[in-house]
Every structure is written in structure tokens, then in C-alpha cells.
Amino acid sequence: MSSIYIDPQVYTGRPASAEGRLEKEIAVYDLLDRLQIPFTRVDHGVAMTIEECQDVDQLLGIEICKNLVLCNAQKTRFYLLLLPGNKPFKTKDLSKQIGSSRLSFAPAEYMEKLLNVTPGSATIMALMNDPDNQVQLIIDEEVSALEDFGCHPCINTSSLRMKTKDVLEKFLPAVHHEAIFVKL
């Protein structure tokens, strides 16, 4: 059972008002609308962990995936990894597949600088804030095989559900990012 507040209402599309919303969250809704990607949304208290998202997942009828911002030891290569929320992350399994050794979690300042998100708010939607493609998207094949996709809109006080196909075929081309698919 989650300890965060969750609005029990599942909304279709963007909030009726931008009041109380961050500019980066509204920018996500603007882009999704422009790309004609339909989505449902649940608003909630700050969710910092996958465990805190479990009740949100139930309302949306999905499992929000883990979004990890990683980097190499020199902090010259950055990655956004999406994997199922219940799947443990083993850096050696990923390092081998992408040819990068010694991966670690990227420091918060790099998350903010490269993706305009803070810890707990990492999301594929943040790739819209990376026009220079400094962050390589990596998706576990289990996530790409799901019919529906769950993520935050660049802030961890709302969660979205949309078609995975729309994310892969409309969103990623629009933000000029390509995914590397891995099996973890």
C-alpha cells in the first residue's frame, strides 16, 4: 500500500488548467497533443520510488517502468535506461550489451543539465529536453513489448498511460532519439 496521496480520478489528457503545474510538465502535454498521442493521467503526491507508484499503477492499469539515468566513470556518456519496475538492475548485464564499462547512476546535476529532471522524475518524456542527443535511450525488450506504457511527465506528481507503439513510433522520432533495445 502506497503512503503517498493519490487522486482516485483517472483523467483523459492534460489538466484543465496549468495552474500549479511546472512549465516542463505542460511542455510534455503540449508535445503529446501536437503529436496526437492520447493518454490518461493520474495525479498524486511525490512518488520517488517504484514502490510508491504501485497504487498509481493499479489505477492506470499498467506497471510504470523504472527510468534510470546512468553514466560511464568519466561522465562523458549518459544513458536513460527503461526496464520493468519489478526487474532488478545489474550494471554488468547492461555494460556488456552496450560496450560500456563501469556504469553508475548519473549525479543529479547531470540529470538536470541534460534532461531537465530531478531524481525520482526521470522519464522518457525528458528526451524532449535533449536536442543535442547527449543521452542515449536504452529500453529493455520487455518494456518495448508491452501494449501500454507508463511514465511521468517530467515531474513525479503525475503519471501517464499511453500506447507503447505511440511512444516508439511518434514520440521518439519527434524528439530525434533512437533506442537501443537490450535484454536484461
UniProtKB/TrEMBL annotation:
It comes from the Bacteria. Transmembrane segments: none annotated. Residues 47-168 form the YbaK/aminoacyl-tRNA synthetase-associated domain. InterPro entries: ProX/PRXD1, YbaK/aa-tRNA-synt-asso_dom_sf, YbaK/aa-tRNA-synth-assoc-dom. Belongs to the PRORSD1 family. This is Prolyl-tRNA synthetase associated domain-containing protein.
